[in-house]
Specification:
- The radius of gyration is 18 Å and the shape is globular.
- α5 packs parallel to α7.
- It has one domain: 3-Layer(aba) Sandwich (Rossmann fold).
- The chain contains seven helices and four strands, in the order βααβααβααβα.
Length: 218
């Protein structure tokens, strides 16, 4: 798994230099890593025996995702792929029950809040809009754009999310927007994108890197 992120303005965080972990936190991380690994093994068994669909899971990616979760702050955005279950569990955005509800395509949003069973398993999302049509305060939660099935498609979406943050930071007209505090912390949020090595051969990966260099980083 390769992980990258687009412009960070995070300051005053211990994680920016090093991680300070207590023995309790290390034990809890180990427990979560084992839980996620066993979830992957059981999920793959269910797929191979024909009881569930789509058998790509997150085993082998547990440790880097646990580290990523420690620097992921509220207000940040994830644009990821189908091996990110450990990250989502570590952020408190995925339970075991929800994981298997998605594996079996449960259409009940109470059981499978990421897509109501409409996506393949390990395709995650967090709601941006409340049931009453009002916006959630995205700066008070960990945010995930709905995962996309096309390999490397998450790259272009990540560039768009990062560019939106830059616009909120630099565009004076957007500074007049009354609800801007629901969507940005003055452009201080980070967009994280995860991708597999094979998908970095896709054209859209290189197009996204080029677009980031032209529009986001300059």
């Amino acid at each position: 798994m390769a992980t990258t992120f687009f412009p960070s303005q995070h300051t005053n965080t211990k994680a920016s230099l090093y991680l300070q972990l207590s023995s309790t936190e290390v034990c809890n991380d180990y427990k979560l890593a084992v839980l996620s690994r066993e979830t992957s093994l059981l999920g793959r068994r269910e797929v191979l025996t024909g009881k569930a669909k789509f058998g790509i899971l997150g085993d082998g990616k547990e440790l880097p995702q646990l580290i990523l979760a420690k620097v992921f702050q509220k207000g940040d955005f994830r644009s990821g792929y189908y091996r990110d279950q450990t990250l989502m569990m570590a952020l408190g955005k995925l339970t075991l029950e929800q994981f298997f509800a998605q594996l079996y395509a449960d259409p009940d949003l109470n059981n499978e809040p990421h897509s109501g069973g409409r996506q393949m398993n390990s395709h995650f999302a967090t709601p941006f809009v409340k049931p009453n049509g009002q916006w959630h305060n995205l700066m008070q939660t960990f945010n995930t754009s709905a995962d996309i099935s096309c390999t490397a498609g998450q790259m272009s979406r990540a560039v768009g999310l990062a560019l939106a943050s830059k616009q909120y930071r630099c565009n004076n007209e957007l500074k007049k927007f009354k609800q801007r505090n629901l969507f940005t912390n003055n452009g201080n949020e980070v967009t994280f994108v995860t991708i597999g090595d094979a998908s970095t051969t896709e054209g859209v990966f290189w197009e996204a890197v080029n677009a980031a260099g032209v529009y986001v980083f300059r």
